[in-house]
Amino acid sequence: AQSVTQLGSHVSVSEGALVLLRCNYSSSVPPYLFWYVQYPNQGLQLLLKYTTGATLVKGINGFEAEFKKSETSFHLTKPSAHMSDAAEYFCAVSASTGTASKLTFGTGTRLQVTL
Amino acid sequence: DAGITQSPRHKVTETGTPVTLRCHQTENHRYMYWYRQDPGHGLRLIHYSYGVKDTDKGEVSDGYSVSRSKTEDFLLTLESATSSQTSVYFCAISDRGFNEQFFGPGTRLTVL
Question: B58 vs A102: CB contact, 8 Å cut-off?
Answer without folding.
Answer: yes
